[in-house]
Protein: (2Fe-2S) ferredoxin domain-containing protein
Amino acid sequence: MTQSYYQRHIFFCLNQRDSGEDSCANHDAQAGFEHCKKRIKAEKLAGPGGIRVNKAGCLDRCAGGPVAVVYPEAVWYTYLDQHDIDEIVDSHLKNGVVVERLVLPPNVGR
Ligand code: FES
Structure:
């Protein structure tokens, strides 16, 4: 089996819809993304073998927005504030323990 380039990879939907439909950008997604990036950088966890934080376009699960997904576990989250992001960083990204209270229910779609 090949080694994964990053240990974990989190994608934040930052999509803003022009149509007036609700989208993650309407729910402080940018602030969540930036806070996560700042935390990973501050703890020197970025880079190969570490944790990568990426922007994404619409992930098509807008009804649960703002959403983010962590690989390789393919765990989807919804979050409210920086405290939630801190918990995802400390528990899941650093230690592989899923933050159950923030997991997006499987039936949430667009
Ligand atoms: S707008 Fe974020 S998942 Fe669609």
